[in-house]
Design brief:
heterodimer, A: seven-stranded mixed beta sheet, B: mainly beta, four-stranded antiparallel beta sheet
Chain lengths: 108, 118
């Protein structure tokens, strides 16, 4: 099974900050990576897929990059509504999938 | 528009079984697969398995093999997830999810809370 290691597990930041979350796969996943945002009591929301493609309707302050085993999610200028938990998900080994452990983004 | 509507909350005793349903609408049900994802209280997302609504093929997470069964009813466009031999650590919100275009998920059910308690 492909393991996904996400870091950090939590992060404190202020409105306007630039933040980066990292996801490392246990083997190469050829950009088969999605990022989700989840708010308390809600289902996850897809932000990006194919490592860097922005889902329709998602603000452009969200971006993704990476290749091979290492991927990043960047929020260029944090907005109040961005404080949430973020998860990466690999789909290289379809139809077997794995999530990262999550990163909780909190207000400083 | 795609909608996934799940059945309501359940309370079960340890050792019992639970069956959660996910009724799909807004797309051709048999053309896509559905995944099930769960989230224990305060914990992360855990992928449980996937079923093809086209032919019923399944793929389950290794840790749940032998306890989970996913099925579909194409006559009602409904997917089901049954989990047996419930334990307290199966207490979680269970989601169904799908996507029309890839192996990541744009559409999610509202979640079903399953509580396992004696």
């Amino acid at each position: 099974d492909i393991q996904m290691t996400q870091s950090p597990s939590s992060l404190s930041a202020s409105v306007g900050d630039r933040v980066t979350i990292t996801c490392r796969a246990s083997q190469g996943i050829s950009n088969s990576l999605a990022w989700y945002q989840q708010k308390p009591g809600k289902a996850p929301k897809l932000l990006l897929y194919a490592a860097s493609r922005l889902e329709s309707g998602v603000p452009s302050r969200f971006s993704g990059s990476g290749s091979g085993t290492d991927y990043t999610l960047t929020i260029s200028s944090l907005q109040p509504e961005d404080f949430a938990t973020y998860y990466c998900q690999q789909y290289y080994s379809t139809p077997m999938y794995t999530f990262g452990q999550g990163t909780k983004l909190e207000i400083k | 528009q795609v909608q996934l509507v799940q059945s309501g909350a359940e309370v079960k005793k340890p050792g019992a079984s639970v069956k959660v349903s996910c009724k799909a609408s807004g797309y051709t049900f048999t053309s896509y697969g559905i995944s099930w994802v769960r989230q224990a209280p305060g914990q992360g997302l855990e992928w449980m398995g996937w079923i093809s609504a086209y032919n019923g093929n399944t793929n389950y997470a290794q840790k749940l093999q032998g306890r989970v069964t996913m099925t579909t009813d194409t006559s009602t466009s409904t997917a089901y997830m049954e989990l047996r031999s419930l334990r307290s650590d199966d207490t979680a919100v269970y989601y169904c999810a799908m996507n029309l275009f890839g192996d990541y998920w744009t559409h999610w059910g509202q979640g079903t809370l399953v509580t396992v308690s004696s």
